Queue: 3 jobs
Job 1
Amino acid sequence: MAFRVISPRILKNLRCNTTTKPLKTFHPSISTAIASPSPAAATLSLEDSEQLFGSVSTKQLLRSSVVQHAMAVESLVDLGMWVMKSSVFESGVMKDLVMTTMRQTFYSHFCAGEDAAAAGRSIRALNDTGLRSMLVYGVEDAHDNEGCDKNLQWFLNNVDVSKSFPPSSVSFVIVKITAICPMPLLERLSDLLRWQQKHPSFVLPWKQDSLPIFAESSPLYHTQKRPKPLTPEEESDLQLANQRLLKLGQKCEEANMPLLVDAEHTTVQPAIDYFTYSSAIIHNKDNNPIVFGTIQSYLKDAKERLLLTIKAAEKMGVPMGFKLVRGAYMSTESKLAESFGYASPIHDTIQDTHNCFNDCSSFLLEKVANGPGSVVLATHNIESGKLAVAKAHELGVEKVKHKLEFAQLYGMSDALSYGLSNAGFQVSKYMPFGPVEMVMPYLLRRAEENRGVLAASGFDRELVRKELGRRLKASVF
Ligand SMILES: Cc1cc2nc3c(=O)[nH]c(=O)nc-3n(C[C@H](O)[C@H](O)[C@H](O)COP(=O)(O)OP(=O)(O)OC[C@H]3O[C@@H](n4cnc5c(N)ncnc54)[C@H](O)[C@@H]3O)c2cc1C
């Protein structure tokens, strides 16, 4: 490895050289965060590694470099998945060894910490570099009410942790509906909602006010025959799920802490959207969206659905917040559609996905510039970042900057995050936290889903390497 041959003197110099250049000193808050960027800083510049990583320590850069290289190797992700699933992982010694290695490498690179105190330190450190945090407790899907109740406590606790920081530090609390409503029920609700879309006279007595969750082009193949109505037990489970979301929404509303609902695969997404929109109708008031939904632009129906939902929300006077992503379940979606004998719901080419993301981004920016609502552009894609920055300038940065949040995963695409932040935009990192044993399976699953992204993060690896080289040279000469 390159740094094995570095002399102790140089290493000492490197350690001292933690901050080579102060980054901007303002700390954004949700409404008054962004100090006006100087005209020179207003564009997205990603060439100058010294400027981008000025506030990042050499130790952090070295760890980033090692982890990024390791994650780019597909076989390492496979090995990680194999170890976590295999029986060797159940043996005490082996498990301890794997956990210690994971804790010191991948976990500390991609996670905020094991508990609220550790997460707090990561949040402060990130905020010192000008970025904000989106806290996500790394829980997996729940299959019964007991699991959902336990998860709800974690999410509520997450709101308490988040609100204990100034708004300049934590931008959103994340919730996975699959963790607070049992998965089998989400599947049943989605089936029933799809059947109603196919047969508008089909009555769903439990359905509350919501917004459109399907468009003409939405895939409905998952539901081939008329589903049975909810049983009394399912109705009671649904009531419990509604109560959990209501409790969480109320807590977020009281704390004025926006709640971002993650999107999952299409088997359960109709029910997730249904919960999200009915909750938004309750909590999103006075130009202040509290509950945000997620639109996956890799889906062919994404744009049409987004337009319909926004139109209906406008008619009802509900200010909406959306997180826009490309989507993380590509292979699951294609396989599922194939098993039903249908074409994949994902765009046929990656360029179509890029176009859809950029069109939806442009549409949402126009909406928030001229009316209520907010938008989170969650992407590592540099071209999409550049286009959004250009659109913000075209619309007038002042009109959008408090309503726009860029977001990247913690430990990924730091160059883009710092570049956007240097250009005067609000930027958050999506930060999972929780005990290593709980978060590692979550992380590895995300790594498996995002293989393409990990392998494609060469741009960031190159910039980190360039900056490490520059610091090394600066220490030697
Ligand atoms: C803060 C944050 C929150 C997120 N939340 C969610 C969420 O709630 N739900 C969710 O599903 N995902 C979520 N994601 C993951 C996201 O959906 C993407 O998987 C990931 O960010 C990669 O997309 P990108 O915009 O960064 O673009 P890029 O870095 O450009 O990645 C493009 C990737 O898109 C994929 N792709 C999409 N469409 C096609 C196609 N037609 N053909 C081939 N490849 C295609 C490929 O895997 C490719 O590697 C989140 C990401 C972030 C940063």
Note: The CA atoms of residues 285 and 317 lie 8 Å apart.
Job 2
Amino acid sequence: MRGDGTIDPIILAAGASDLGFPKALARFGGRTALEIAVENCAALEAPVVVLGSDAERVREFVPPGARVVVNANWRAGQMSSLQAALAEIAPGADFMLYPVDYPLLTRPVIEQLAAAFRARLTGQAIAIPKCKNRGGHPVIFASELRAEFEQSQTAREIVYRDAARVRVVPVATDAIWRDLDSPAAYRARLREYEQRICFLKSAGVPPSRVPQGQQNPARHACPERSRRVSAGPGTHLRMRVPQGRRSIARHVSAGRAVSNKQESPARTVRLSSYLDEVRAGLPVTPGQALRLIQCPDRDLPELLATAIRLKEQFKPGVITYSRKVFLPLTNLCRDYCGYCIFRRDPGQPGAHTMTPDEVLRVAREGERLGCREALFSLGDKPELIFPEMRAALRRLGYKSTLHYLEAMCELVLRETGLIPHANPGLMSPQWLRRLRAVSPSVGLMLETTSDKLMKLAAHRGAPDKVPSLRLAVIEAAGRQAIPFTTGILVGIGETPRDRVDSLFAIAEMHRRYGHIQEVIVQNFRVKAEIPMSRRAEPTMGVMLRTIAVARLILRNMNVQAPPNLSAPNYHELLSAGINDWGGVSPLTPDYINPERPWPHLRQLEERTRAAGFALRQRLPVYPEFLDHVKRAGGIAFEKTRAAADSEGYARSTSSAERLPANQEPPANQVPPLEGAIPSEGARPSRGTPALPNATVPSAASRFGSSGIQPITANRQPRTVNREP
Ligand code: SF4
């Protein structure tokens, strides 16, 4: 039976989305994917839009004239949505199944498909588009097949049941199979869409009327050349790069690169329109992030307000920190980073490898002061170049620094209530597996994805800082679902584009494996003794922009910035969307930046509260990653569970509750290690000198000409008593 020639489009927009917002609302040049789909069907009957997940949110965006069906049972799968839609369609009408997540489809393709269906041969009842030997969407069905939808599990099953009734319609675009299944796919579709707009503008063609055969018009509008691009030592990718551009931003992640070549068409777009899209739930693209991270002062307040908004959607009202002891197991290191004051050669003043007794003594004292984290930070494989370290390890009874670290983590885990967090540099997958049994979370700063820094002072002497090697460790941890801390360094010679690339590389790792529990945005601080002593430090303005863009890129990931590296005005970092202060110790110094004392916990709490947030102590493992530890089991899980409260934060102890008001440890406890400089909160004898009360200017007055909106009313400029 032939229908009456009418075709009712069914736009399927009910399914769940991995984008962080409904796929129907993914934006392309100001239009949503749903609006594009409805417009493409303008020559057919009024479409039926099937909503399900997030129905109320999507409903607001349904264009006038479309019919709406809400499938309350959308979790049951696509067929339940189809049946809900078919109930809305006249019995004799043919219908088109059009998933909403094919945003590059155009009206001419839809009309070509409809025309081919209407001209089908006798016996044919289905029209399916095909490009490069691959079928795609949408698909048109004749009305007589309706009964089969009640007896089949999927529409695909109906299509493949009988080849004789299928009319294959060759089309000139691969848009029929380019969907929005992941954030990476969305970014790719955005780039392709921008290329198309670039072409259409130059050709004077309305976007909805892309001529057949010109579905990949970027080649006409933006001449490209093929170019070999480094993606880490030994790895090169061949990419298409627009003519005339000297560099591309690349997103190095397991051999994949993403170019920012669409940046120029978007140059005219105002930054606030990007921020509108981000607030509406859309992901920021690399090109947008690059513009935002270099935004002028006039756009900074809106950038910060957007970052804060995302942070509050993610973790409302709370800022966390981890009360820790810092255990520099050894400061011997085979690398020579240009910004490092921590490392020593054997025999240098301050060179030290902690003994098991020292480790245990510091850990026990930390426990008494309410600490829950034992941060093991150490040089990278010093035994590879120093015979002295090999001898020291032999005396201690271990084959390597990692063997010794493993034993010390286990010692702390068994003998105290502290939870180890190991930070030993590069590790093999096998070592990650071993360490996770005694250190529930593990860390390695990515620092940067830029290979250029291997030729500059920062990493010239540091073979363990090759970006691809560090990404490989992060990926290996992901494959083992180890809660992982990483981050970037700001101001060590990288460019804003490098920062954006690094953040996207981290985001991509987390998208694949879901294991990155925390991203640190850490600023370089000058020290007189380091090779980079003459390099300028990043300003607070650079930090605010970088953290805010990190929040936009990473969205629902924990973003941390160390308060001591931005003292005295560290509270201003709260304006940029961090949700964590990282590890703060009432006992031990920051051995990496010993001239930068931790803030008093009491002061940290006051400033956090003044900004409108509650300060909450967490474990080294974030609450949402405790399940990862549980799956691994063993003593690491048992001890972590014992240290956690019902919500997964640090279980409070009487000493922990007392400490913020009276932070000083008792006298005659835990002398600092040789060469160490105690922290502000660590020792009463070496605190920062008392300062008179000082008015702290707001970030608005210092970093933006038009002023930053306060997070809450009580974040206005105020008087802060800086305690000794
Ligand atoms: S930053 Fe780390 S790897 Fe680099 S020299 Fe210092 S301790 Fe070694």
Note: The longest strand covers residues 318-327.
Job 3
Amino acid sequence: MPQMKQNRRTVPCYTCGAPFYLSIRDTRFLGTYRRVFCSVDCLVKDVLTPRRNGFFIQQMVENGILKKFEPQPNDNGFVCFSHRLGTHFRSYFEAMVAEVLVLRYGINLIYEPFELLLQIGRRDKVYVPDFFLPDSGVFIEVKGEWLHGSKKKFLSAVQFLGDNGIILIPPYLRKAFSDANKSTGGFDGGAAGIASVCETGLD
Ligand SMILES: [Zn+2]
């Protein structure tokens, strides 16, 4: 069966069920994570589905598990500025995703509003998901690469918030988001020289 090898890298879209191709590298990036989408449209359908977890989130706030995130004054990680949204982001990928979700789909999006206290092993770790969608009650994490134990943090956030409580936007969707952003008039200057590209490229 010549298709066998290809099947190992083909996964079903969580929304529409259509199988789509992932490179070995993308498959490794995802690991056990399987809430994956064939397109930006299919991802958006999922994140717009109401979660009805407002009560759960309120409880987390009351129990101190979820706190308002306030960046330290010396936090200089916000290297990208979207002129069109008037917001700083930590990466070009994040800025691009935000522009697409807000400008193409009209989604109400809050950037890094909360920090989540997670227990990983015996340690307490603070994790700040990238976006929160108040209308559907879902978090979004945009990840171009896993750094500094960020995969462990994300996977334990999935365990804690539930499989539909936080959605990953992995690097294989970067091209699709870039194309979608072009349709909103956004410019994709690529990953190199993120700060300067972001400063000059997004207006
Ligand atoms: Zn799909």
Note: The chain has eight helices and eleven strands.
